[in-house]
């Protein structure tokens, strides 16, 4: 039987939701591997809405579930209905929505809180020893919830190629082990069944992002 994988989205758009290319890559690689993706998102207001042309917040208000449905082509479920028993794995793509809608990392960093629904889902998969795939900024969720876990968001030294490297330092301060890696590589924390890759934490060609996410998906399915 096809493996069933929950994909949790955080809206639609890199600056205020899920990163569309990352979400699409996850769905493409799951499909290619013969897995069945089941897409979920929390039914909550977004922290704010960003004009992606100007890069600035607007006065609009949008809903995370409604916006995520754009990526899922309407085939999406409320995160509150997710039942870990019927699923084999969990994947959460990146994008600032992870740090704004699924958590408060964008405003509070390592002192952030995680959405109760999102934390509950992560803990349920972890307790059931089912693999969790996280890319781009989403490994911060694991760093906050699972002290001592091993993750990667790419590199821990800031430069033009790695503009968000301070994220790694903040995760280390939470007690997790950060493993430096290239954009096309993944890190597998076998004990916690976590698979992470940096994706757009790196200024890299989009095909390299796609390839790294492909490795993450394959490792998640291997562990499932």
The portion of residues forming beta strands comes to 15-25%
Strands in their spatial order, largest beta sheet:
5-2-1-6-7-11-10
Shape: globular
Q: What profile does the largest beta sheet have? A: 7 strands, mixed
| Tally of discrete structural domains | 1
Roughly how many Å apart are the termini? Answer: 12 Å
Q: How many distinct helices? A: 8
Helix percentage range: 25-40%
Protein name: GAL3B protein
Organism: Pomatorhinus ruficollis
InterPro entries: Class_I_gatase-like, ElbB
Give a quick precis of the structure.
The chain has 224 residues and is α/β, with parallel strands linked by helices. It has helices spanning 20-32, 64-71, 96-100, 105-108, 116-127, 139-145, 166-173, 206-223; strands spanning 4-8, 36-41, 49-51, 56-58, 77-78, 89-92, 132-135, 150-151, 177-178, 187-189, 194-197.
SSE layout:
Elements: E1 4-8, H1 20-32, E2 36-41, E3 49-51, E4 56-58, H2 64-71, E5 77-78, E6 89-92, H3 96-100, H4 105-108, H5 116-127, E7 132-135, H6 139-145, E8 150-151, H7 166-173, E9 177-178, E10 187-189, E11 194-197, H8 206-223
Parallel strand pairs: 1-2, 1-6, 2-5, 6-7, 7-11, 8-9
Antiparallel strand pairs: 3-4, 10-11
Helix pairs in contact: 1-8
């Amino acid at each position: 039987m096809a493996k069933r994988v929950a994909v949790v989205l955080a809206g639609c758009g890199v600056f205020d939701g899920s990163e569309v290319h990352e979400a699409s890559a996850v769905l493409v690689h799951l499909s290619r591997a013969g897995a069945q993706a089941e897409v979920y998102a929390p039914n909550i207001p977004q922290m704010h809405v960003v004009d992606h042309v100007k890069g600035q917040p607007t006065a609009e208000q949008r809903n995370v579930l409604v916006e995520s449905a754009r990526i899922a082509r309407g085939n999406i479920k409320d995160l509150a209905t997710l039942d870990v028993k019927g699923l084999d794995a969990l994947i959460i793509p990146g994008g600032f929505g992870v740090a704004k809608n699924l958590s408060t990392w964008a405003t509070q960093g390592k002192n952030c809180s995680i959405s109760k629904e999102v934390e509950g889902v992560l803990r349920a998969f972890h307790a059931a020893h089912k693999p969790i795939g996280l890319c781009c900024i989403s490994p911060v969720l694991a760093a906050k919830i699972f002290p001592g876990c091993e993750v990667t968001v790419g590199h821990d030294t800031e430069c033009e190629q790695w503009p968000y490297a301070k994220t790694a330092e903040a995760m280390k301060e939470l007690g997790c082990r950060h493993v430096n890696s290239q954009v096309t590589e993944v890190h597998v924390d076998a004990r916690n069944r976590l698979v992470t890759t940096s994706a757009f934490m790196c200024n890299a060609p989009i095909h390299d992002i796609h390839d790294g996410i492909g490795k993450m998906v394959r490792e998640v399915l291997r562990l499932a």
